């Protein structure tokens, strides 16, 4: 099961509190109804299998995944909504070692698209991972594409550790990162 939602991109026209998305109704034939959606929003994956990601989200034939779609304020019904969820997302996993090949215990791995237009809140091409108790990290559900990847000791770089970096911060991090190209189901 995959859960999707819409997130506001202009809080003045699509408030989170009060009159946000009120109810999602799924039908057994794959159709859904989402009520209470207003203003400019993107469609995002809320949760689901690790390897899944939203391949495309169209409202009236227009992108609502990477480009905000304006649902307006008048309660208009949009019947031509198509969300395609793929289960062939790429993943990156591993462990971080220092210059002497000793495992690093406290670190952060930042992975983000090489395309700056993908650097927005809740982008599925903007991920961060911290080590599990085993010392390893894993990032899954990545759409195919080119990414920057960077690992830092968490105590050394508050910029890399930010959960919501600004585009200027990501630009700075990209100068120190390695480029990774991922295809469907790559691991």
Strand order of the largest sheet: 11-10-13-14
What is the helix/strand order? EEEEEEEEEEEEEHHE
| Total E-strand runs | 14
Uncertain residue segments: 18-22
What does the average pLDDT come to?
A: 86
Instruction: Output the structural class.
Output: mainly beta
How much of the sequence lies in strands comes to 35-45%
Largest sheet: 4 strands, antiparallel
> Helical region count?
2
Distance between the termini: 22 Å
The percent of residues in helical segments reads under 10%
Overall shape? elongated
Q: Radius of gyration over alpha carbons?
A: 18 Å
Name the descriptors.
single chain, 187 residues, mainly beta, four-stranded antiparallel sheet, three-stranded antiparallel sheet, 2 helices, 14 strands, elongated
Describe the structure in your own words.
The chain has 187 residues and is mainly beta. It contains two helices and 14 strands, in the order E-E-E-E-E-E-E-E-E-E-E-E-E-H-H-E. It has helices spanning 158-161, 167-174; strands at residues 3-8, 23-26, 32-35, 40-47, 53-59, 62-63, 69-70, 81-86, 90-95, 107-113, 126-129, 136-142, 145-153, 178-182. The strands form five sheets. It has a four-stranded antiparallel β-sheet with strand order 11-10-13-14, covered by helices on one side. A hairpin with a 5-residue loop joins strand 2 and strand 3 (32-35). 22% of the residues are buried.
